[in-house]
Specification:
Shape of chain A: globular
Strand order of the largest sheet of chain A: 7-4-9-8
Number of strands of chain A: 10
Largest interface: A-B, 72 and 72 residues
Distance between the termini of chain A: 45 Å
Strand content of chain A: 35-45%
Radius of gyration of chain A: 19 Å
Structural class of chain A: alpha+beta
Largest sheet of chain A: 4 strands, mixed
Oligomer: homodimer
Chain lengths: 184, 184
């Protein structure tokens, strides 16, 4: 059985700096109609930097939506027309000052499927060359280094809660456990 | 160093059926001001059902924001004042028709930290008793069963992309690999 919804009409409700909100009238598969309010977002890129010791770098920053600091992998939204891997490398350079000899695609994640079009393109950076961070104006982050095992412990105990960071750390742990990834 | 942003003023921009949008003027740590546009969401609960064979149940449903079906763990938004574990059990009963002897907290995930207050409370259901689904009106889902290993493969190859589903499957895989979880 294939599930579907067909758009009957669509209107712009809100146009913001980062995202806009639309409301669509949709035809459901039982012939009834409903409405969907959707956040339209340009998408983002995120990258987990890991060194040859199996240590990962996370950035600590204040997140207004939660009123406190969170620990995350470097990430940012895509600029118009920007290649996702290029965006991930740019964020790695801006937030951590790192470049990477090897970037592996960890596959995109859809953080909020119920009402938000955002796609986060996810990468693993290895073969790191470390330099000085180049934060955007108004961006304040602190880079912290953890053994991967400790970061995974922080995911399991709920100390790390950011969805993209949870996804990246756990994928890399499973790839290492399976022997499908090696430290470089 | 502690990072912070202080709210100077806040206004409602949009009030929807599921979420609202606010814009706040904030004081940054360098003394400058900026604006934050934030989606305010009531939060949700999600639950991964796993049987004593290590098979997991996922629901396939159409997601309007992506224009196609996605494979996810059962989930839904919290009703006002609802306990998150009770909400997770309710969704498990509605979408799959299951009750569970054992529900383990997999810790909350914040799917979209940059601009959305949503918290997803995550659980693992074991000791399943399977019955008939009780979908909400207008909700159309198909329940599918996979060995956990196959579901984890689907995460790693990008076939499963829903963030909460990625987080739950990978956490459970790592807990099993570490011997911190057993099949019941």
């Amino acid at each position: 059985m294939v599930h579907f919804e067909k758009t009957l009409s669509s209107e712009n409700l809100f146009e913001g700096r980062i995202f806009r909100v639309i409301r669509s009238k949709v035809l459901l598969e039982d012939g009834k109609t409903s409405h969907r309010e959707i956040v339209c977002h340009p998408g983002g890129a995120a990258i987990l930097p890991m060194n040859d010791q199996g240590e990962v770098y996370l950035v600590r920053q204040f997140r207004y939506a939660f009123g406190r600091e969170l620990l995350e992998i470097p990430a940012g939204k895509l600029e118009p027309g920007e290649d996702p891997e290029a965006a991930a490398r740019r964020e790695l350079w801006e937030e951590c000052g790192f470049s990477a000899d090897s970037v592996r695609n960890l596959m995109p994640v859809y953080p909020t499927v119920g009402y938000d079009t955002e796609v986060i393109h996810m990468y693993l950076a290895q073969g790191l060359r470390c330099g000085e961070a180049h934060p955007d104006p108004g961006e304040f982050v602190t880079v912290e280094k953890y053994p991967l095992k400790d970061a995974v412990d922080m995911v399991l105990c709920g100390e790390i809660r950011d969805g993209k960071t949870v996804a990246a750390l756990m994928k890399v742990q499973v790839l290492l456990d399976r022997g499908e990834l090696r430290l470089i």
